[in-house]
Amino acid sequence: MEYNIAVVRGDGIGPEVISEAIKVLNAVGEKYGHTFHYQYVLAGGEAIDETGRCLPDETVAIAKASDAVLLGAVGGPKWDTLPGDERPERALLGLRKELGLFANLRPAMVFDELADASPLKPEIIAGGLDIVVVRELTGGIYFGEKGFKDTDMGTAAYDVEQYSEGEVRRIARVAFDMAMKRNKRVTSIDKANVLESSRLWRRIVAEVAGDYPEVILDNMYVDNGAMQLVRNPKHFDVIVTSNIFGDILSDEASQITGSIGMLPSASLADGNFGMYEPVHGSAPDIAGTGKANPLATILSAGMMLRYTFGLMEEADAIDNAVRAFLKEGCRTLDIATGDAAPLTTSETGDKVASLI
Ligand code: IPM
Ligand code: MN
Known about the structure:
The chain has helices spanning 14-32, 45-51, 57-65, 89-98, 122-125, 165-180, 196-209, 222-231, 243-257, 295-307, 312-327, 345-354; strands spanning 2-10, 35-41, 68-73, 103-109, 130-136, 146-151, 154-159, 185-190, 216-221, 238-241, 264-268, 274-278. The chain is an alpha/beta fold. It folds into two domains: 1-102 and 283-356, 3-Layer(aba) Sandwich (Isopropylmalate Dehydrogenase); 119-256, Isopropylmalate Dehydrogenase. The two termini are 18 Å apart. 48% of the residues are buried. Manganese (II) ion binds at residues 247, 251.
């Protein structure tokens, strides 16, 4: 088969990690007889420098015409002083909205070989951790009405948190479908003791749960959820939550694995279309040094094969190659222990590609 992939290399370590993911994809293509066509498009800081805009129309058009988008990372200190609407990060929000990417899947798992890297006590993560945060990605306060108004305490700024029944229903379905393929547990996280939008969220999630009698649903308030993630992370299988809570909790979840450089993500639209990117950012401090860990991007490419292209065996091949890489004792700098010299970014890509 042939697949068209729009590729945003982006800023900082983005281009380096993308190159390695492409090496691995090409190895998969060779082994299984697929051709991946890559079309490079601009978004983020690089786009600002070259076109004056963080998300050129051409990028959106090409992304829409592709089968999937693979993205490295955007942002860096160079653009930090720009006003909110012109910052590189804005490109991510724009891509999500324009491409209808309402479901963000952020797995947080502890690889057996890297259990030592978790900042949690061994007894808390014994037996491993495997959580997926399903974050609503195109609604809520990040996209709600915003503005300023005069008050007797001076100018006030506001951002509205709003969710419709339909928005909650479709993200809940993604979470329950995911749970059916895993351990059949969904934890919905909200703030229903305070927020009207959360009460609606909770009501719709309960309604959807009715269609999945095998899945056990529990609800948590976000403050408690943040605490349980470090106190008893094994409670969680699939977490479903709003855009802002998911933003925060997915960072927390990724950190407790101790290896954020290993974590992939998928942002999915209705149907099979998706955008795939590592959870880590652009890490400008190590850009160009060969220290970046490309495994999160490589695993993101694996998620693309699984969720958008439906190539399960090929996706397994990527996951297995990464596991074999770790099992052989190969390490990048961020996860290095012992005295074996860490592999560079490009050595890592070569090695994983050779294990396909
Ligand atoms: C993320 C990031 C983005 C978000 C920012 C950069 C807009 O933090 O993908 O989690 O808040 O969604
Ligand atoms: Mn975030």
